[in-house]
Amino acid sequence: MAPRRAGALRAEDGRIGLREHLIGAAERLIAEHGTAGLTVRAIARAAGVADGVLYNHFADKEELLAHALYAHVQAVERALGALPTPGTGTVEANLRAHLRYGLALHRAILPAFAGLLGRPAVLARFAELDGAGRPWRDRLAGYLHAERDLGRLGTDVTDARLAAAAAMLVGICHDTVLTRLLAPGGPHPAPRPAGGPGRSDAPDAALVGPVIAVLLAGIGR
């Protein structure tokens, strides 16, 4: 897209302005190549605009990257689909779906975060944007509390034990994915998930059953 066409995009379409176009271009680069070494010039080229155009819509590169990273996380979560509703199916099957979702989510987004470890300003601005939504860890905690209140978990399960259960599942995701990122050759961008929560890689799938069995031994009925 030539710079003149990008300018027309802003003028002709009030719903998708040039600012959103720039975020979309940066998000696609993050999804395909990660964040390490991502430059203003590369984003401008992908968007079809001159380098300086970015600074007409963002205070600096960090603001653009934070918005692009947030868009990347949202796109990954949309691709993964909906999580189980409390009170439906079985608790075991639902927790398996939650863990598969968490593993796929972290495989897709942690490489992008790893590339920004040396850019704390970007991560701080992302945290401000992320506060407007409900991260998976919060939805997982909410699911566990709802199932406890419905009587589908142990009657003596305290809030502290539910918090520990949620931390255990989140920790499994971090450990599994970070171990790969820290291996020789990592980090590297991961492909965006193409399926719902049932999608899983074979190495991760072997973890799901045993982890949920151990978890339910502590909080199940």
Q: How would you describe what is shown here?
A:
With about 220 residues, the protein is an all-alpha fold. It folds into two domains: about 5-60, Arc Repressor Mutant, subunit A (Orthogonal Bundle); about 85-220, no CATH class. It has nine helices and no strands. It has helices at about 5-10, 20-35, 40-45, 60-80, 90-115, 120-130, 135-150, 160-180, 200-220. Helix 2 crosses helix 4 (about 60-80). Mean pLDDT is about 85; it is low at about 1-5 and about 10-15.
Number of strands: 0
Tell me about the largest β-sheet.
none
- Describe the global form: elongated
List SSEs in N-to-C order: HHHHHHHHH
Radius of gyration, rounded?
A: 20 Å
Strand content: under 5%
Query: Which structural category fits the helices and strands?
Result: mainly alpha
What is the helical fraction, as a range of percent? 55-70%
As for the number of domains, it is: 2
* Averaged pLDDT: 85
* Low-confidence regions: 1-5, 10-15
Span from first to last CA? 59 Å
- What is the helix tally? 9
Task: Outline the fold blueprint.
Layout: H1 3-12, H2 18-33, H3 40-47, H4 61-80, H5 91-114, H6 120-130, H7 136-149, H8 159-181, H9 202-219
Helix pairs in contact: 2-3, 2-4, 4-5, 4-6, 5-8, 5-9, 7-8, 8-9
Report a brief summary of the structure.
The protein has helices at residues 3-12, 18-33, 40-47, 61-80, 91-114, 120-130, 136-149, 159-181, 202-219.
